[in-house]
């Protein structure tokens, strides 16, 4: 299946990408994506981020063809 990935903040700097499209096996979830990025980018597991699937913050979710997964930096505000 094909999913769209968006990176923001330091994760965009780390990957050198703002967006990419990946072909992944069926039944891929967020944890599998994180594992893939940990293998690919040496300091991925040192980063703090939130994950949104189709613009909804989530911690773990099975992905579907065409989903948009965004890796977001921590939010600050006041």
Describe the model:
Helix content is 22%, strand content 29%. The chain has two helices and five strands.
What are the key terms here?
78 residues, globular, alpha+beta, 5 strands, 5-stranded mixed β-sheet
Summarize the topology.
Layout: E1 2-7, H1 10-15, E2 19-23, H2 30-40, E3 50-53, E4 56-58, E5 68-72
Parallel strand pairs: 1-5
Antiparallel strand pairs: 1-2, 3-4, 3-5
Short synopsis of the structure:
With 78 residues, the protein is α+β, with helices and mostly antiparallel strands. Helix content is 22%, strand content 29%. The chain contains two helices and five strands.
- Kindly state the number of beta strands: 5
The tally of helices reads 2
Biggest beta sheet summary? 5 strands, mixed
* Percentage of β-strand residues: 25-35%
Which parts are unreliable, with pLDDT below 50 for 5 consecutive residues or more?
A: none
* Whole-number mean pLDDT: 92
Structural class: alpha+beta
């Amino acid at each position: 299946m094909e999913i769209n990935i968006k990176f923001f903040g330091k994760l965009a700097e780390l990957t050198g990408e703002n967006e990419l499209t990946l072909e992944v096996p069926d039944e891929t979830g967020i944890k599998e994506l994180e594992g893939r990025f940990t293998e690919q980018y040496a300091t991925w597991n040192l980063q703090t981020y939130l994950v949104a699937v189709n613009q909804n913050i989530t911690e773990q979710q099975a992905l579907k063809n065409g989903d948009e997964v965004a890796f977001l930096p921590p939010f600050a505000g006041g």
